[in-house]
Amino acid sequence: MERLRDFLIHKKQEGLLRTLRPISARQGTKIRLGGKDYIDFSSNDYLGLSGHPRLIEASNKTAQEFGTASSASRLLSGDLQIHHQLEEAVARLKNKESALVFNSGYQANIGIISTLFNKGDCIFSDRLNHASIIDGIMLSGARFLRFKHNDMEQLEVLLKRERARFKRALIVTETVFSMDGDRCPLKELVVLKEKYNCQLMVDEAHATGIFGQRGSGMVEEEGVSEQVDIIMGTFSKAMAGFGAYVAASKEIIEYLINTSRAFIYSTALPPAVIACDIAALALVKEEPLRRKSLLESARYFRQGLRDKGFQVKGDSQIVPLIIGDNLKAVEAAQKLQEKGFWVLPIRPPTVPQGQARLRFSLSYDHDKEVLDRLIQVIAESVTCS
């Protein structure tokens, strides 16, 4: 117990101690915590769909019909027609032969990677990839090779040096990076994938619903759906539902159904959740204004910060403001919270050492008046290293 106590004390001194803070109410971008109301800039409800009546209606209706749970894994009696309807809709959206639903993005990434690749293979991973991708690679037993963030020159150096030593190889990346808000050079990755005979897997968790003519994601926007072998993503962000998916060839999906422990040994997602996901997919197609307005707001917010002298990067709905020092990031977040903006500090190990930041997640429901107020408060309260 002394070891645990010392760990917690040390984390607090470093400004790295994490705590849970229960929210008592949520309505759109407004939340209530400790009796105080805030405007939320830490949510992934990018399209503002979490309170949409069609999603609520679909979920309620399906719960009335099927009950609250699937009550079994998909390979027992938990496999409902509605699961297949969602998978068929995902496959169409992603322009792939087939798709499979997992219970979360974390389970999807560890389940896909550790099942399809193993000892004797090699995996090339962007250094800023999500923890679930890293854990999936570690579980696979494959040779793990990291390249600098979005650095295609270093990736090719690694490919030249290492690829020929292994029978199978995977390049894996996020398409929109969750902490930096920037995009991967997808077309360049496709070129390297084909040149060095690799498979390419992308995580579209923060791109699905936001990019592409139909809201399919960066793969659609860049026109490379045929060249990307494995497309993973989630329903819990722009789609305002829950769960995750993988879209790929029919052969890959059938193999995962038969071998992926993360899929086989999990109770199927509740039908009400699946109905919500289906309704969200339809709305993304029907209401493109939401994603267009969101990205315009992100450009407006980013430029507003630059006009105040801040250096901000990225080109998505995620806007990071690098503070540097952990304790200063915590202090900056507290100042914004005092002004009614729910913004949280992002610190190591989620981001690299020395890159603690405020991460602003924009929503369709954040209007320009709110953004202007926030920009002014940041200018008055925040100092970057």
Main attributes?
385 residues, alpha/beta, Aspartate Aminotransferase, domain 1, Aspartate Aminotransferase, domain 2, seven-stranded mixed sheet, 14 helices, 43% helix
Q: Work out the radius of gyration.
A: 21 Å
How many discrete structural domains? 2
Number of strands: 14
Structural class: alpha/beta
Sheet-strand content, in percent, reads 15-25%
In angstroms, what separates the terminal alpha carbons? 37 Å
CATH superfamily of the largest domain: Type I PLP-dependent aspartate aminotransferase-like (Major domain)
CATH architecture classification name of the largest domain: 3-Layer(aba) Sandwich
Work out the oligomeric state of the chains in this entry.
single chain
Number of helices: 14
Strand order of the largest sheet: 4-10-9-8-7-5-6
Low-confidence stretches: none
Level of helix content?
40-55%
What shape does the CA trace take? globular
Mean pLDDT score = 95
Description:
The protein is α/β, with parallel strands linked by helices. The protein has 2 domains: 17-46 and 288-381, Aspartate Aminotransferase, domain 1; 53-286, 3-Layer(aba) Sandwich (Aspartate Aminotransferase, domain 2). The protein is built from 14 helices and 14 strands. The protein has helices at 2-13, 53-66, 81-94, 105-116, 131-140, 152-162, 186-195, 218-222, 250-259, 261-264, 271-286, 288-307, 326-338, 368-381, and strands at 25-27, 30-33, 36-40, 98-102, 122-126, 143-147, 169-174, 199-203, 230-234, 244-248, 318-324, 341-342, 345-346, 356-361. It has a 7-stranded mixed sheet with strand order 4-10-9-8-7-5-6, sandwiched between helices. Strands 1-2-3-12 form a 4-stranded mixed sheet. Strands 11-14-13 form a 3-stranded antiparallel sheet. Strand 7 (169-174), helix 7 (186-195) and strand 8 form a beta-alpha-beta unit. Helix 4 (105-116) packs across helix 9. The longest helix is centred in the C-terminal third of the chain and has 20 residues, at 288-307. The radius of gyration is 21 Å and the shape is globular. The mean pLDDT is 95.
